[in-house]
């Protein structure tokens, strides 16, 4: 065990409002368990993936700005060593059309259309009448290019046009009022076990953009109901049913309990979710234990 090398995959710079709070405690916990663990920057030319027994994807949060480069690196990394979560799962998870696949497996999701034509978006907006809608691209992170609008706001169609002009696919969803009230919960499932839950507050400002103009979460530890715990387990099981890739090392299951739609999945983050170990430090041990377990499997 003492010779096992673990690279915790990060990047080299983070904005002041979106820092990586997880890597330092995770690396320390892995070292306490006998692993030779280090944070490694994915785009560092000196990084040799083959020098590690395991690479754990944690916070390569600049990947949306250099997606092709990241995907090429991911292919090289998986050819050289073991990577978790598995790159095949990461590639599947990068496009939010996976939600439709999980819905087909019986997982509740927010009603969503996926549009590649502006006229179809226009029809969705017309069908929503004077209600509010959320538009976002299927490939995004940190609420980039995500907006909450009245359906008749010209800004909604303008956002859709920008997404389509870049070759993206537009998701159109009805507003879920509970999200605007900050009632989203992130449920963390580590190696199949629910470890903790976080509420991060509302993010989207009406009329497009983010509250305060920047992406800022306000994470707080929250309790989990039996129904939410079972829902999280069901989501992870459905991911395995769709992909055949087994139980992921980590999953963040974003949910909201909606008066209109029931308990629904907003996102299953299987790539680089912040674990919020600074908010729930007791979760650090279970995460490190799960990594060590995977080393010997």
List keywords for this structure.
single chain, Dna Ligase, domain 1, 297 residues, ATP-grasp domain-containing protein, 32% helix, globular, DcsG_Biosynth_Enzyme, D-amino Acid Aminotransferase, Chain A, domain 1, 3 domains, 4-stranded parallel sheet, alpha+beta
Query: Which regions contain 5 or more consecutive residues with pLDDT less than 50?
Result: 211-215
By CATH, the superfamily of the largest domain comes out as ATP-grasp fold, B domain
As for the number of domains, it is: 3
Question: Residue share in helices?
Answer: 25-40%
Radius of gyration: 19 Å
Largest sheet: 5 strands, antiparallel
Mean pLDDT: 91
Shape: globular
Count of separate DSSP helical elements: 9
InterPro entries: DcsG_Biosynth_Enzyme
Organism: Cellulomonas flavigena (strain ATCC 482 / DSM 20109 / BCRC 11376 / JCM 18109 / NBRC 3775 / NCIMB 8073 / NRS 134)
Protein name: ATP-grasp domain-containing protein
């Amino acid at each position: 065990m003492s010779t096992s090398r673990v690279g915790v995959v990060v990047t080299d710079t983070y904005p002041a409002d979106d820092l990586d709070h997880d890597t330092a405690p995770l690396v320390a916990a892995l070292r306490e368990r006998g692993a030779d663990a280090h944070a490694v920057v994915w785009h560092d030319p000196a990084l040799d993936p083959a020098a590690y027994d395991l690479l754990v994807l944690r916070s390569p949060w600049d990947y949306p700005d250099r997606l092709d480069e990241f995907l090429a690196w991911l292919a090289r990394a998986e050819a050289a060593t073991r990577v978790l979560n598995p790159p095949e799962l990461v590639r599947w998870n990068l496009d939010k059309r996976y939600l439709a696949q999980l819905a087909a497996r019986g997982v509740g999701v927010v009603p969503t259309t996926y549009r590649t034509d502006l006229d179809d978006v226009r029809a969705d907006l017309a069908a929503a009448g004077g209600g509010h809608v959320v538009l976002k691209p299927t490939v995004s992170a940190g609420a980039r290019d995500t907006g909450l609008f009245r359906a008749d706001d010209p800004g909604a169609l303008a956002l859709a046009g920008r997404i389509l002009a870049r070759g993206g696919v537009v998701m159109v969803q009805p507003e879920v009022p509970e999200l605007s009230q900050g009632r989203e919960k992130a449920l963390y499932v580590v190696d199949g076990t629910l470890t903790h839950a976080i509420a991060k507050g509302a993010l989207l400002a009406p009329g497009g953009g983010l509250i305060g103009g920047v992406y800022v979460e306000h994470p707080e530890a929250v309790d989990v109901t039996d129904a939410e715990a079972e829902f999280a387990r069901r989501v992870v099981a459905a991911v395995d049913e769709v992909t055949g890739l087994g139980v992921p090392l980590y999953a963040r299951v974003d949910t909201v309990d909606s008066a209109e739609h029931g308990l629904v999945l907003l996102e299953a983050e299987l790539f680089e979710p912040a674990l919020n170990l600074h908010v729930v430090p007791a979760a650090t041990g279970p995460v490190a234990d799960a990594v060590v377990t995977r080393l010997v499997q």
